Each structure stands twice: as structure tokens, then as C-alpha cells.
Amino acid sequence: MKHVWFVLALLVCLPVSAQDFEVGIGRVNITPDKPIRLSGYAARNKPSVGVLQEIWAKTLAIRDKEGHRIVIITTDLIGFDHDFSQNLFNEAKKRFGLNREEILLTCSHTHSGPVVGGNLRTMYKLTEEEAATIDEYAKQLHEKLLTAIDQALQDMQPAVLRVGHGQAGFAINRRELRGDNVVLGVNPTGPMDHDVPVLTVSTPNGKLRAILFGYACHNTTIGGTTGEDFYKIHGDYAGVAQAELEQALPGVMAMFTILCGADQNPNPRGAVDYVVQHGKSLAAAVQQVIQGPMEEVKGPIRAAVAEAELEFAPHTREMFQEELEKALAAKDIYREGRARRMLELYDKGQPMRSLALPLQVVRFDKSLTILAIGGETCVEYALRCKREYPHENLVVIGYANEVMCYIPSKHVLLGGGYEPVSSMIYYGMPGPFAENVEEVIMASIHKLLERVGLQPTGTHTAAN
Fold first, then answer.
1. What gap in Å lies between CA 244 and CA 248, rounded to an integer?
2. Strands annotated E in 152-300
3. Each residue's pLDDT tens digit, 229-271
4. Beta strands at 406-407 and 171-178: parallel, antiparallel or unpaired
């Protein structure tokens, strides 16, 4: 009897394991092993000429007490096309039993990384050799991402998750009004979101293992130049921020995902010195968050996926025939390529009238909700969602799972310019979206968030 009481007393004195989660981490180097065409800038006309910084894919596999899982993948890449993403999701289901809603695929949107599969591929006039190199890289990348998933699933350990928010100020709205036109410039009064959300993974005894953070800003600090750096592989400011954190915190894996930064640029930009400046600034913001009080994240995990069907503005075959003739006369290879593609679809009886925008939500009890929107998502979506769900710890990611084109708000759409109009040429889309684009997306987001127990309690105020 004394023995029984001794055991009971010992159990009371020992710390009770109350972790809501098990977490595993994985990482693979995805730096191309040969020269390859870099994505993001149409001005580039040759393959890469070296590596300024290696690029990585990193994974967090999170499982709650009930067995619900989410695998978050971050990559130092421009983004993924539909076929690449779907092939990855399908193979992950076969190999690991992961359902579609259990994988969140993100990117940094660096403009100093390789062309990935079909993403933005129509922007370039590729030789057969260059195209073959891109196809080979996509196959290698597919397997490397599966390896990173496997590493994380094999590494599951009891963990504590915490979330906090900081601020970084180098992003600026780039939609500048000059006369009657909106151009890519600097607009310090335009909508911006300087939030830096930070999620940490620690062991039960407090040892930090991983950091996931984000920021709403294009990774285009190396841009607008024609020098050698313009053709070298680099993770841009996001790559520097991750490297700074990993150097300052040995043994910790730092992961970055871009948020809704489609109409946001780093300022200043155009030189590697600015890349370092912004990367260190972002890393310092993350450091400040993890050194201060953070809220513990609780389970269970609830995840769901959906699609918003977005209509394009009306178009006809005659419109693209006229565009083709003008493009040929002006020797505009980008408009010519878009026009030829659209005419081919018309000739097949399959004109492009709409596209499906992937949406995903991951909610951790009432402590954190991650909303992920596909495409190059403009900042007003994040700002609107935060207004409509003011009591939720909401992180809104853009460029998630698939990047097919820019996703403008109604305000951006009506303003015209690069994001809603000109960029569609490079993405091979028929033209701008219909004016209902924002309301269609928000209605789909509302339905999606309802599935994880969220209702909007705030108000929507239209952007100026």
C-alpha cells in the first residue's frame, strides 16, 4: 500500500505532458545544379550565371491530439502552376495518406529563383535546351518536396506552438497615380500591411526548433538592373531574413511565406545592399517578437479547402485577332503570344471565360487562423478580412498552392495598370477579371471560414 501511495505521489510531482501537438520539421536544398532561366522579370534573356544564395524548401508537419494534421511547406521560389501543385498533392496522398486540406504549399515569390514548371513560362522565348532544363528541374523539385514532407512526418515530437506579431516598414504600395494612369512606382498613401506574424515551435522544455513568419511584400529587391546580380540565384530579402535568424539561433529552422503583397514592393530596391538591409530588418522584427510575450496556440486543427470561380471580363475572338495584328506590327512578342494562345482556345471551342482560385483555411482552436489565397493577391484582401474578422488572430497568405495570375481587389481592378491588366499578358490570361471579382472571392472566403466555425463580426469599408 505504501508503494502505491509513493507512485501516486511521484506522478503528482512530475510535470504533466499537456502538449496539444506533435511537430516534425524537414528541409531540402532546391538550388538548381546548372544554369537555368530565372523567373519574374521579362527583361531577362539568358539563363542564370551563378548563385548568390542557396534556396530551400522547408516543412512543418503538425499533428494534434485527435490526429488531425497539417503540413506547411515554404519554398524560396516564384510560385507553382496548377499541374505541378496537383501532382504534388496527389502523390502526397498516395505516399503519406495526406488529404488535400492537410497540405499548404507556399512560396516566397523571389524573382531571383528558377522558372518552375509552367508558371510564367509563356513570358520567355525558350530554346529547346532551356525548356528541357526547366522540365528536369520541375521533376527534381517534385521529389525534393516529397522528401521534405517525409522528413517532417518522420520527425514528429511533442511540441508547443506560440504565435505573435511584429512590424516591418520597408514594404510600400507600388501603384502610383501619374496623370490619369497607374504605374509601378511608389505610393506612400496607398493600402499597406506591415504586420509580421510569427509562429514558433518549441520542445516541451522550451527549446526553440522552428520559426514560421511572413510579410506582405514582393521579393523584388534585386530588380530593375541589368548587371550580373540580375542573373544570379538568390532568395531576396526573405532569404536573407531566414539566414540571419538561423545564424543567430543555431539549430533553429526559419521559414518564410509571402502574405498578400502583390501590389507591394520593397523600398528602396535595385541593389543587393538593399536586399541585406531589408532582410536584416525583417529578421530583427521576428527576433523582437520571439523575445517578447507570445500566445500559446491550442488544438484542435480544423482545415478545409475551396475554390472561387472568377469570371473574366467579356471578350471575343475578334478582339484577339486585332490584338495579334497590332502585336505583329509592333513586334510585341508578349502580346503576340497571348493573342495566339487565346485564338487557339477559340478555335478549339474552349475560350477561357473563368478560372478557379484555390482557397484554404487552417484554424487552431480559437488561437490562430491561417487563410491562404492562391494567385498574386493584392493587399486589400488581407486588410478586408482582418476588418471583417476583428476578433480572430488571422494571418492571410497570398500566392498559396498555385499562382496563376494577379488577384486584384475591385479598387485595384477599376484603377487599371499593371496588376489587373498588363500582367495578364505575361500570365497568358484573356484580360482583366469582371468587376465582381472581389465579392465573389469574399463570398467564397466567408463560406470557407464558416466551415471552421468563423463568422464575420466586423464591417467592410471600401478602399479609397
1. 6
2. 157-167, 171-178, 181-187, 195-202, 208-215, 253-258, 264-266, 295-296
3. 899 999 999 999 999 999 999 999 999 999 999 999 999 999 9
4. unpaired
